[in-house]
Design brief:
The protein has 5 helices and 3 strands. It is of the alpha+beta class and 158 residues long. Strands 1-3-2 form a 3-stranded mixed beta sheet, sandwiched between helices.
Length: 158
């Protein structure tokens, strides 16, 4: 299939909400990978939609930051310097995991006058770029990442 999307939530959600999350995640992640020149038929990304409590635990454990955040990415590859691509013939490129707090995403969407779908698109693109080695820990890297993110979101037209 290419892109694997897992939807796991701490609370009950309706089938229509689940379908919305899965279809949005698949569309956006696939599009972002395509715009970055990745083979989406041979790439795997796992996306977890959760709440503030769980993402706050991850944020503390992996970033030593207190409280929830909107999105965390866990790349399978470590990148040094330029963007790298490692592929093993016959095996999918497992890029990593993206974790999104629906609680925080909803608050941010409301605060910025966006729909939840628009906010999720932003967070999914942001998370996907992190999986591909982009970062915003330095001004020069941030400018590059933001430029790619803005171009993908504009092309998505969400």
């Amino acid at each position: 299939m290419g892109i694997e999307i897992d939807v796991i939530l701490e609370s009950e959600i309706s089938n229509s909400q689940r379908e919305f999350l899965v279809s949005t995640a698949r569309e956006v992640v696939r599009f972002a990978l395509e715009k970055q020149g990745r083979d989406t038929q041979n790439s795997e990304v796992s996306v977890l939609f959760t709440g503030d409590d769980f993402i706050a635990d991850l944020n503390k454990q992996y970033r030593d930051e207190d409280g929830p955040t909107d999105v965390l990415s866990f790349p399978m590859m470590e990148f040094d310097g330029d963007i790298e691509e490692v592929s093993i013939p016959g095996l999918p490129d497992i890029l990593g995991d993206i974790v999104i707090s629906l609680d925080t995403a909803s608050r941010q969407a409301d605060a910025h006058g966006k729909t939840l779908r628009q906010e999720l698109a932003l967070l999914l693109v942001h998370g996907t770029l992190h999986l591909l080695g982009y970062d915003h820990d330095e001004p020069q890297k941030e400018a590059v990442m933001w430029a790619h993110q803005d171009a993908i979101l504009k092309a998505l037209n969400i």
